[in-house]
Specification:
The protein has three domains: about 90 residues, lambda repressor-like DNA-binding domains (434 Repressor (Amino-terminal Domain), Orthogonal Bundle); about 140 residues, Aspartate Aminotransferase, domain 1, CATH 3.90.1150; about 230 residues, Type I PLP-dependent aspartate aminotransferase-like (Major domain) (Aspartate Aminotransferase, domain 2, 3-Layer(aba) Sandwich), CATH 3.40.640. A hairpin with a 2-residue loop joins strand 1 and strand 2. The protein is built from 20 helices and 17 strands. With about 475 residues, it is of the alpha/beta class. It is about 40% helix and about 15% strand. The two termini are about 20 Å apart. Helix 2 crosses helix 3, helix 6 packs parallel to helix 19 and helix 9 packs parallel to helix 10. The strands form five sheets. The protein has an eight-stranded mixed β-sheet. Strands 13-17-16 form a three-stranded antiparallel β-sheet. Strands 1-2 form a two-stranded antiparallel ribbon.
């Protein structure tokens, strides 16, 4: 009923404003709102409802109230003789997207509350799938807990930052000292902090498509404009250099790379990174490099930190222990400032200010960084032939490519794969609807490609952390689903 009411009122509002579907698509494009022809067609035909940011755009463009558009009549709530005040979320959130934990996940939680078992292939959280923290890490944290009751310095414990600095030196990251290392409650906090310290309203930052959506969300929330450059599936998901060059303007401040990549599992070779450095050098851009999966590289490949190729540029490199040491819940990450820090002196002051404001990151988690980065790296046992992550990748890749209408590039790192669906075969117009249909019919939870700022409805991401026997069951169900699915 709600979908029908919304569709009717949308058509009424469009008629009153003299707007056609194509007009709304053009206006959305001009305002940087992601609204395709297929989406507006679905809304007008009553097949689906818009997300909050799209609803806000439609209401604003058509000059109507959001609640009226959704078919919700306002209640005359009063407090004595006065109308009751209503509190809404900040307008700064209208264009913020984080569908890794979005509407499809909300539906999965509703189904779980109803007693259904959901196979979650949507989030890179190792612990629920039987990956255990190294015993030495747990032992050392226990031994140090009573020493971790107070705040550390804002940047972090000396022992943690010293270990991170030495790790960075092994990665050949140049021109850094212990004062250039900041610990955080996961890399996520540090991304938010560094975007807030850099971007003014209207500043542009180049972010890959597909991306890890937190980058786009944090840049948008900081007032900046996320400009997405294409990663080319036909070239192993490497960044498209010509597309990057075309999207640089006089407002562009920085470029983000995610290497190894989430959601594609791509690993960028040295020559690709060098091309990005050359572009950043020519246009005087900051390089932000998200390298949280740098220790999850397979097939004997080498991970190269882009900062090692750019001693004359200002670079910010992010990593942490959530994935490599299977301790996502501990929330420990770091960022490293390197290269030409003179040109970023004022920006670094902003980073220090925001770092001081949050006092410090999780001190018990900081206490085990030195232990984790030294000695035997247990993650290596997972990524070699016979290891869980390696074998699960081999299995999922073969199973997916055996499904008619599904293709994918074999990932070289991390624990994600980003399959492509034949949209003509399956008549897919809305990838979020696909994810909901898969969830409701087969109780499998994945993230649709749009959740990673991929603008065609033809991809989805799978996390291949479950054991092979669990993946086998999920692939059998998925194969059956695609044998009949047609949107």
């Amino acid at each position: 009923m709600l979908k029908g009411t919304f569709a009717e009122r949308l058509k009424t509002a469009m008629d009153l404003q003299g707007k056609k579907q194509v007009d709304l698509v053009h206006i959305a494009s001009e305002k940087g709102v992601k609204l395709g022809k297929s989406h507006i067609s679905q809304y007008v035909n009553g097949k689906t409802l818009p997300r909050g940011d799209i609803l806000h755009f439609l209401a604003e463009t058509l000059q109507v109230d959001e609640e009226w558009l959704m078919g919700k009549e306002k209640e005359n709530q009063t407090l004595g003789e006065r109308e009751m005040r209503e509190f809404k979320k900040s307008s700064k959130l209208h264009n913020v997207l984080y569908d890794v934990r979005g509407p499809v996940v909300d539906e999965a939680e509703r189904m779980e509350d109803a007693g259904m078992h959901i196979l979650k292939l949507n989030i890179g959280n190792p612990a629920p799938f039987g990956f255990k923290t190294p015993d030495e890490v747990i032992y050392d944290m226990r031994r140090q807990l009573t020493d971790c009751e107070g705040y550390s310095s804002a940047k972090g414990l000396f022992s943690a930052r010293k270990a991170i600095m030495q790790y960075a030196q092994l990665k050949k990251i140049p021109n850094l000292s212990i004062e250039d290392i900041y610990t955080g409650n996961g890399v996520s906090e540090l991304i938010n902090l560094s975007m807030s310290a850099l971007l003014d309203n209207g500043d542009e930052i180049l972010i890959p498509s597909p991306d890890y959506p937190l980058w786009t969300a944090c840049a948008t929330l900081a007032g900046g404009k996320a400009v997405h450059y294409i990663c080319d599936e036909q070239s192993d998901w490497y960044p498209d250099m010509e597309d990057i060059k075309k999207k640089i303007t006089d407002r562009t401040k920085a470029i983000v790379i995610i290497n190894p990549n989430n959601p594609t599992g791509a690993l960028y070779p040295r020559e690709v990174l060098q091309q990005i450095v050359d572009i950043a050098r020519e246009h005087q851009l900051i390089i932000f490099s998200d390298e949280i999966y740098d220790r999850l590289v397979m097939d004997g490949e080498e991970h190269v930190s882009i900062a090692s190729l750019a001693p004359d540029l200002f670079c910010v490199t992010y990593s942490g222990l959530s994935k490599s040491h299977m301790i996502a819940g501990f929330r420990i990450g770091w960022m490293i400032l390197s290269g030409n820090k003179k040109i970023a002196k004022d920006y670094i002051e902003g980073i220090k200010m925001l770092s001081n404001m949050r006092l410090c990151s999780n001190v018990p988690a900081q206490s085990i960084v030195q232990t984790a980065l030294g000695g035997h790296q247990s993650v290596n046992d997972y990524i070699l032939p016979g290891g869980r992550i390696y074998e699960q990748r081999e299995f999922i890749y073969k199973q997916l490519t055996d499904i008619p209408g599904i293709t994918c590039v074999k990932p070289k790192a991390a624990f994600y794969i980003f399959p492509k669906m034949d949209v003509k075969k399956f008549n897919i117009l809305d990838d979020e609807k696909f994810a909901l249909d898969l969830l409701r019919e087969k109780k499998i939870l994945v993230v649709h490609g749009g959740g990673f700022n991929w603008h065609q409805p033809d991809h989805f991401r799978i996390v291949y952390l479950p054991r092979v026997e669990v993946l086998k069951e999920s692939m059998e169900k998925m194969g059956d689903f695609f044998s009949y699915y047609h949107q």
